[in-house]
Amino acid sequence: MGKSSMIRLNYPSFRLLLYLEWLLLATAALIEMLHQFQSLQSLIWRVGAIALFGIIGLRLPTVNLRKKVLFTALEFGLIFLPIVQQGLSSRSSFLLFLVLLMRSCLIFRQPGQIAVLSLAMVSYTSLLLFKPILPEKVISTVWEWRLSNVLLFGLTLVFALLLINALIAERQSREELEIAHDKLAVTHQQLRHYALRIEDQATLQERNRIARDIHDGLGHTLAAQTIQLNNALLFWNSEDEKALGFLKQAKQLGSEALLEIRKSVSVLRSNPLQGLSLESAINKLLQDFKCMTGSEISDSINLPVSLSQEMNITLYRIVQESLTNIHKHAQATLVIVKLQQHAGLIHLSISDNGKGFDPAQNTTGFGMQGMRERVAALSGQFAIYSESENGCRISVSLPSQNI
User: Fold this and answer.
1) Spatial separation of the C-alpha atoms in residues 47 and 32, rounded to whole Å
2) pLDDT tens digits, 101-137
3) Which domains does the chain have, with CATH numbers?
4) Strand partners of residue 300
5) Which residues are 382's β-sheet partners?
6) 136 DSSP assignment
7) What residues contact 231, with CB distance under 8 A and at least 6 apart?
8) Using one digit for the tens of pLDDT, what is the confidence trace for 215-238?
9) Taking the model in full, what pTM does it have?
10) Contact between residue 314 and residue 379 where contact means Cβ atoms under 8 Å apart
């Protein structure tokens, strides 16, 4: 509360409190107009004091203690000011003291609230008990009424104090919940970045694994090729047919080694787009797929904005993995790829007319899981729709704030 120069009545409970204050002040003004008065000037003094009392409540001091004390003293003064013109009625004073206590709960801590409560009790009691009583025959009745009124006033002030402090506690709880929500949002963002770092570490580990595979697989293949070439040289003059067989085996081993090198180098590239734009890189993937499979390709790529490298790689890898799966399993003759931006989202759709499958029975594939993880790391949505003999469609939506 001390961090703001004004009370912010932006919570429903505090707006209700403000409406209650206005209702009490309007009631006090109405009581004064209905109460007997000696002159019009006396009525103007009373209603004017109540109106001014309400106006100053539109801006409450909450920082400087000196301003808080002066503000409260001014409120007491406005309640006592009409006393020079016969004074406010006891019921109007009752309502104004109640509003004064409500305001004190918003600008003071508990010790200050208790001090204002005590001063209000003393002031109201003094106004009530020391007011002159003219008819002697009703003295006892009036004193009894006055004492009961004092008791009722005290109980009302205590109840108001407890009620308003409960409202303040509720407001503080809401603020704490809002702060906790903001912290959770920050934590979620940090976890997302942490997941990306973990992915980078996993990529590094994968590169190390591929390096070992190159050493073990490619090294073995080249060693075997060297042996076949040596055998061919040994039998070149004496046994031509046998030497030719060794050369053919060496050639086959060389082709296998070259294929393995290309696959390994492709995986090890830090930027799979090789300096191309995302649209050009995807078009190259589609043309290579068409040449390799003979399938018909239909593509629609429309991105009016440039994407981050992270999003480019994610979309490229998803298209690449999808085409690989279609080639291996779908037996499709038509592949449709759509990539566009709409309503703050990047939408990617890859569909085919292949034999399809049951997604519920194919949830453990590494390729599919990798696509899901890439999309989740960018806070996106991944879905796959397929039925047996009815093709397959992969749908990806990524938020544009990742751009």
Assistant:
1) 7
2) 888 888 888 888 888 888 888 887 877 776 665 555 4
3) 12-183 (no CATH), 278-402 (3.30.565.10)
4) 338
5) 396
6) G
7) 243, 246
8) 555 665 666 667 677 777 777 777
9) 0.41
10) no
Residue in this structure with the two tokens 């994968």, named with its chain if needed: 206
Supply angle C-alpha 213, 216, 219, rounded to 5.
115
Give the model confidence (pLDDT) of 252-285 as tens digits: 777 777 676 666 666 555 566 777 888 988 998 8
Q: Which are the contacts of 168, defined by CB distance < 8 A and separation ≥ 6?
A: 1, 105, 106
CB 400 within 8 A of CB 393: no
Fill in the DSSP letter of residue 364: -
Which is it for the CA torsion 229, 233, 235, 240, positive or negative?
A: positive
Residue 203 belongs to what H/E stretch?
helix 139-213
Q: Which helix (H) or strand (E) holds 25?
A: helix 12-34
- Which long-range CB contacts under 8 A does 138-147 form with residues at least 24 apart? none
Q: Which long-range contacts (CB under 8 A, 24 or more apart) does 158-163 make?
A: 158/117, 160/98, 160/101, 160/102, 160/105, 161/101, 161/105, 161/113, 161/117
- Judge whether 315 and 341 are in contact, CB under 8 Å: no
Residues facing residue 348 across a β-bridge: 339, 396
**What are the tokens at 182?**
């903001």
